[in-house]
Design brief:
216 residues, Tetracycline Repressor, domain 2, 0% strand, globular, Tet_transcr_reg_TetR-rel_C_sf, transcription regulation
């Protein structure tokens, strides 16, 4: 094989990989919308295919349905797929490491929580709503909740190292409180159901983090 032929094959292979990645992204982004609008049970591959501009068979190649759902949750939350994503490797995590005082940390938690929960609320609610009646979904949900808790533990260890974390409350209780405050469910209640603004939500999260988790 000549050098030209080798380069041509490499180019074609890279082009196919790029096109496949673009298709995958369209399918997952369409799934975010479809699951958010219809819930898990009512959402269909046909709806996702139509929204993504691909065939139903193409959507099936990215399935099963539960896998597409959780990929949609990941992309809606952080912009990329991957269960093992390190929060501190994301833009949000990097910004958090650069904060220099506890008030700044609380304010950034408010901003970050809104940035994650606002786009992911629909698809996350679809997952949590269907989980009680679907053992596989429930298992995946519990795994995701455990991963969120691990990430929160990592964040609060850094906060503790900087002397900002309360010491009069057990660490596990602070982790649990943090998880509740930043949960999608709290966002849905505060913003979507109670009709409060994003600015009030960010202020609420920041204030509650300061009052509940941080040294006064």
């Amino acid at each position: 094989m000549s050098g030209v032929e080798s380069r041509t094959r490499t180019y074609r292979s890279e082009l196919r990989q790029h096109q496949a990645a673009q298709t995958r992204r369209r399918v997952v982004e369409a799934a975010i919308e479809v699951f958010g609008e219809n819930g898990y049970q009512a959402a269909t591959f046909a709806q996702i295919a139509k929204r993504a501009g691909v065939s139903v068979e193409t959507v099936r190649t990215h399935g099963p349905k539960t896998a597409i759902l959780w990929a949609a949750v990941e992309v809606a939350s952080f912009g990329v797929e991957g269960r093992d994503l390190d929060f501190f490797a994301t833009g949000h995590g990097t910004a958090m490491l650069e904060v220099t005082d506890s008030n700044g940390f609380a304010a950034l938690v408010g901003e970050t929580t809104l940035a994650i929960n606002e786009p992911s609320a629909g698809v996350w609610t679809a997952a949590t709503g269907a989980a009680p009646g679907d053992s596989e979904l429930r298992r995946h949900l519990l795994e995701r909740l455990a991963e969120i808790r691990r990430q929160v533990e990592n964040v609060l260890r850094v906060v503790a190292e900087r002397g900002w974390l309360r010491t009069d409350v057990p660490f596990d209780d602070l982790v649990e409180a943090f998880c509740v405050i930043i949960s999608v469910e709290s966002y849905v209640r505060f913003v979507q159901l109670d009709g409060r603004s994003h600015e009030r939500y960010k202020a609420f999260v920041a204030r509650t983090i300061r009052d509940t988790v941080l040294v006064h």
